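ZP: hey, is the iron/sulfur cluster complex queued? I don't see it on the tracker
AM: it wasn't, my bad. submitting now with these inputs:
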Amino acid sequence: MTQTNENPKLFIVLLIVSLGSFLLLAVVLSFVSQFGTFVLIGTLGIVTFGGILLLGLLLALKQHQLVPFFEKPISLMILMLYPVALKIGTLGGKEKDEIRASFISIHNRLAKIRKITADPDKILVLLPHCLQWSDCPHKVTTAVTNCKECGRCTLTDLLALQRQYGFHISVATGGTLARRKIQELRPKIVIAVACERDLASGIQDVQQIHVLGVTSERPFGPCFNTSVDLEELEQTVLHVIR
Ligand code: SF4
């Protein structure tokens, strides 16, 4: 079954290496460029601040508490360093999806530490189209209520969960449709189900809304008759529902 294990430590290590790489680059520049000293001093300041934020992140993950002042800067640091960490990690032989899963894991943990909750009608569970059984003739992307709940795909169980808790469900074929559904419904919290790649880019895209990611399961390979761990999804809903 294709699903990457979430290992938050990997992304933390990559954040440290990324900050270290900036410093190393600045040291090299200080020898070869006439403005090298200024670059080095500036980079030292940035890396020191990054180091403080990193410590704040580690403390938050350990103690399940986050000093409000650090919330935004830590999230910003993670988002800004994500592409660098991804590059460094892949150069170091790690799978992209493994790094993405680690990034998503840290993002989710921080989101849960912030303890943001919402009424059910302000929560949107956003599903990928590949979750629908490939031969199903019903157009669930137009309206999820078109699903006949035949039990061939996870939508049957997801609709049962929706009835139990009262959140919204939308099925999107891609990023553009997902953004449109978010604009239409204006949820306070989005629980997005997708592969690591789509989740990581979605989290980067939708920064003004509280997003939690649940990685899809791909027993038949990518983008085909995928599924989701219902227990994990339900636990995520219970974390944010008021
Ligand atoms: S549960 Fe059945 S009707 Fe609903 S989307 Fe899946 S295959 Fe189609």
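AM: back. The CA atoms of residues 22 and 43 lie 7 Å apart.
ZP: great, adding it to the tracker
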